[in-house]
Amino acid sequence: MSLPWLFEFWALPHQLPPEGAWKTWVIMGGRGAGKTRAGAEWVRAEVEGARPLDPGRARRVALVGETVEQAREVMVFGESGILACSPPDRKPEWEATRKRLVWPNGAVAQVFSAHEPEALRGPQFDAAWVDELAKWKRAEDAWDMLQFALRLGEHPRQVVTTTPKNVGVLKAILKNPSTVITHAPTGANKAHLAASFLAEVQARYAGTRLGRQELDGELLEDVEGALWTTATIEVGRAERPERLSRIVVAVDPAVSGRTGADECGIVVAGALTEGPPETWRAWVLEDASLSGSPLQWAEAAVAAFRRHGADRLVAEVNQGGKLVESLVRQVDPLIPYRGVSAQAGKAARAEPVAALYEQGRVHHLRGLERLEDQMCRMTVAGYQGRGSPDRVDALVWALSELILEPARHWRRPQVRGL
To answer: How far apart are the first and last CA of the chain?
Structure first.
């Protein structure tokens, strides 16, 4: 029966080549999303003809992995590799000494290591499959050499299968007009994955930036020079402790409430502040930011205060002045409230808070994705994103209230002699 070998019948939408005259097809997805199978099946479709000995569109293919061993074990011999996907009458032979596959119709696919870009100087190809480009240590050099080698036939093409990472070469490829992209999360291929694997990784990584990258297949950009990085945030990922010394709700108000205006940043954080300040630690508990009228954000801030049993609500008053407090007290006249004024720019205020993260003293719960996106776009030169970093501003006020301000006034207890 030929049906098991008809991939277009079984394939998921993201595993099928897009239409059009593209040069590069990037299959970007989470772990286990079926990227390897899609790459292997695309190579098959390029090299195979209508009958086993008929020529296909491609005759010379480059298979480029991070190392020769990884390319061989994943792209060639893997459970979703070329050999596993090929029907018996079209299966290529592996020539180990020459590191290549040879099909019955004479097509050849040669394996290369991204660690050795110079090996691509000389050979020429009409098709290429590149696997896990985003983790190559010499990605730019290897990619450039492959582009010079991809020069046979009327329309040489290449497929890139990768879990996304914030690397320059991948971002440049995605911006190229001749590139097309298909994308899928890990869950899209759940029919072919162990249920226990999905349950475990989702329980551990759902709602985190690492999960968005490794499971959802999102390209998360850390702006160059950012005060926070994905790695810094993920290192501090933790569950809420059973007890906290204080909890505050911090508000960066959007006073106008106009359509299209900036959001109102509302962040809830708590801290354990027993012992000397260098031992104090904080947990960011919730990002309740929203777009809405002044009364709507005041109600949301008070609701967050009550939801977490907070000790104080802190709000920036540079723009709204007494209006901010009056709005909050309209909702709850007795709420413990403190207005704070910004004496420095946003980036300058954020730097000492970022230093707390570098010291490993701030932890994030899950579900703070939009706040974390803003954090990774805040640099010493300012915010490198659209609009205003209202969520980050609220975060800065919360951690300043919990850690930085009390630490400035803390006095080490004096031990009196006998």
So the answer is: 95
DSSP one-letter string for 273-300: --SSGGG-EEEEEEE--B-S-HHHHHHH
* Ramachandran quadrant class, 301 (left: phi over 0; alpha: psi -120 to 50; beta: rest): alpha
CA dist 93 and 100 (Å) reads 8
What are the CA-CA distances from residue 19 to residues 27, 39, 46, 339 (Å)?
14, 16, 14, 57
CB atoms within 10 A of CB 18: 10
pLDDT 10s digits, 277-333: 999 999 999 999 999 999 999 999 999 999 999 999 999 987 767 888 999 999 999
pTM of the model: 0.71
Name the class of domain 3-214: alpha beta
Residue listed under structure tokens 């569950």: 239
Q: Judge: domain 230-409, CATH 3.30.420.240.
A: yes
DSSP conformation letters of 49-97: -SSTTSB-S-SEEEEEESSHHHIIIIIISSTTSHHHHS-GGGPPEEEGG
Inter-residue contact 384 to 377 (CB < 8 Å): yes
140 in Cβ contact with 85 (< 8 Å): no
The residue extents of the domains of the chain are: 3-214, 230-409
Which tokens belong to 365? 């719960």
Going by C-alpha positions, the residue among 394, 383, 304, 387 that lies closest to residue 340 is 394
Written as six digits, the tokens of 219 are 């390209």
CA–CA dist 71, 187 (Å, integer): 25
pLDDT in tens, 25-49: 999 988 888 999 999 999 999 999 9
